[in-house]
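Example record used in the benchmark description.
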Amino acid sequence: VFLLPLCVLGAFYAAPIITVFFGEEFLGAVIPFQISIWTVMAFFVITLSEHVLTVLKKQRVLVLSNGFCLLVSCLLGIYLIPDYHAVGASAAMTCGLFGLFFLNSYFISRYLGRTKLFLNAARPIIGSSVMFAFLNYLGGTLHGILLTPAAVAIYILVLISLKTFTTEEKKLFDNIYQKILNKIGLFKAKQT
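Model output (structure tokens):
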């Protein structure tokens, strides 16, 4: 839920990020960065799914799925890199990792029964799509300092309107919010 908007923001602000950290001479890396940033989300879910499959004692499945996705990534790399260079390498790696994500998700569903992974993923995807549309629509008119918090707020509002959060998660967020307010209140009390 929280990695998806970070990936959207990273893809949207790729040029400024690369310029700040590496300089303008590396602006050619913007498109590979925009493609590769989505692997952050895939890595997170892949790590979790590999732990679940390991606990289920399905290491053979892990070897097969990892091997298959490595093969797909290599074949895509052989095909894409000669013509598209770094963009092709980024695309090949990203496709391989998302293939691994979908294969591991399939095997988890197979061994644990039907999971609502794709149904649960739809809400953050919708929220991120709305967020990305907002960023693209107002990207040239609003400054990033105003645009980014507004986009994050829109993402959260979409998630709330789609009833993404469970009662337990709402209680957790409320608890965190109260702790932040208490910290701010204590900080202000010490200053006066």
